[in-house]
Amino acid sequence: MEVIITSGPDEIAQIGADAFCHLVDRKPDAVLGLATGSSPLTIYDEIVRRYEGGKVSFAGASAFTLDEYVGLSADHPQRYRNVIAAELTDRIDIDPTRVHGPDGLAEDIPAACAAYEAAIAEAGGVDLQILGIGTDGHIAFNEPGSSLASRTRIKTLTAQTRVDNARFFGGDAEAVPQHCLTQGLATIMEARQLLLVATGRAKSEAIHHLVEGAVSAMWPGTILQHHPQVTVLIDSAAASRLALSDYYRETYASKPAWQHF
Ligand code: GLP
């Protein structure tokens, strides 16, 4: 696991955008794994800047989002399909018909989840998955207690996650849907490369467990310790509980140029 303790949002945006842009440069038909939440936003803005500057094209790429609320109407602004379109995919040249998300309006939810897994597999699997992390350690919507071997399925959000996400629903935690569909931990682990982004002190406990804690379903993000290609991109506040922070800083400062994204 590579831990990069950055100087803040600008550096996170540059490193994250490098990862996506260099990927589509070398593999124009890459499969992108996209995440909602506030953590990836500076990266998405930087990707859009580079696209508008003619430096990168996503015309051959496809994308899969991590998760979706159950029951939000097709035009609801917080439906993750609409969120990711507004934040990224409608602002670049990716073909909208190749941007996929779990169907939170499906009548047959298990069938929709199985179809989503099949679609990812048919596309050849995700090349690069960006991830945020919840304050309770969830990745995508895999809440504490999620099976480390889980696949795309329905989950019940914790009260903490509904409170955390209430800011997107006018501050009303009750307005946050109680159920969601989410890629499972095993689904996420099949992406070839993972980039997890977190900033702020509120994430420091989750980052502490993710990087230096024991692997446990109680802190679902810890499963990433079993993935061979993970970069954890954080600021110093999110890094504030890491025991080996000096080592991570030294390692990144002396990283060979050929190893950069
Ligand atoms: C939501 C999303 C996650 C995201 C998490 C953290 O619950 N489903 O994918 O990682 O929130 O969000 P933020 O980046 O806004 O802190």
Salient structural properties:
alpha/beta, three-stranded antiparallel sheet, 15% strand, binds 2-amino-2-deoxy-6-O-phosphono-alpha-D-glucopyranose, 261 residues, Rossmann fold
* Cα radius of gyration in angstroms: 17 Å
The coarse overall form would be: globular
The counted number of beta strands is 10
The CATH class turns out to be Alpha Beta
Give the structural class. alpha/beta
User: Which regions have little confidence, pLDDT < 50, spanning 5+ residues?
Assistant: none
Q: What proportion strand? A: 15-25%
- Element-level helix/strand string: EHEHEEHEHEEHEHEHEH
Helix content: 25-40%
Multimeric status of the protein: single chain
Q: How is the biggest beta sheet arranged?
A: 7 strands, parallel
Task: State the helix count.
Answer: 8
Number of self-contained structural domains = 1
Overall mean confidence score, pLDDT: 97
CATH architecture, please? 3-Layer(aba) Sandwich
Give the distance, in angstroms, between the N- and C-terminal Cα atoms. Answer: 15 Å
Distinct bound molecules: 2-amino-2-deoxy-6-O-phosphono-alpha-D-glucopyranose
